[in-house]
Amino acid sequence: MTGDKEGKPDKQRDLARLIVGVVVFGSIWGLLEATLGGFLHLIIFPNKGAIMAGIGMAIMGSALAIYKKPSMLLFIGFVAASFKLLDIWLFALSPTSIHIVNPAMAIIFESAAFSIAAVFLMNKMAKNTIIGIGAGALAGLVSAAIWVYFAIYVMNAPAYARVVFTAQEFIANQGIAQAVFCGLFLPLGYMIGERLAAKTTPLLMSRRHHYATSAAIIGGCWGISAIAIMAGL
Fold this sequence. Notes:
By secondary structure, this protein is mainly α. It is 82% helix and 0% strand. The chain has eight helices and no strands. It is globular. The mean pLDDT is 90.
């Protein structure tokens, strides 16, 4: 009985740490979407969607290396996608606007695809970079394929695009580009996560320091993102 009582607080601390990690990594992803992603969109940079997908994959890779919880990746995606809701608050857009739903769903589909891949490949990814590249590329391609069918047949995206596109054309071009960027960025993110885990483990013993730092990161990400969006990114 004593062991159960002692184990319960440990499980609660682990759950709290995991939840904080989800919000921190999701907020960092959301910040980069609002700033770097907004800037690349503004200058009409080639393959901007694929580049941002690769960055999102790197962020999820870092989180996976630190926490070893594939299930958290989907929730990280939901947090990142929620940054798109800033447009509703700042510009009074409809929650069902294609400009909110489509990019948000792209993030969610990517996080869901990688979450599933990580369930089966997490241990192998840690030992073999090639498997990590393959897992990232597969998740990137699958999520791009799912997204384009959603965008065309649910959101009628071609009606809003500069040019009409088909699912096959998108997958053959942007889908392949996204697979390449995700495959390259995932191992890099995983390596960064491993190094962060090795350096920050002693700091995490101080819960007050950990939670204060996490709160500052989360608040900063949301604040900077709001400013960036208001500035036109």
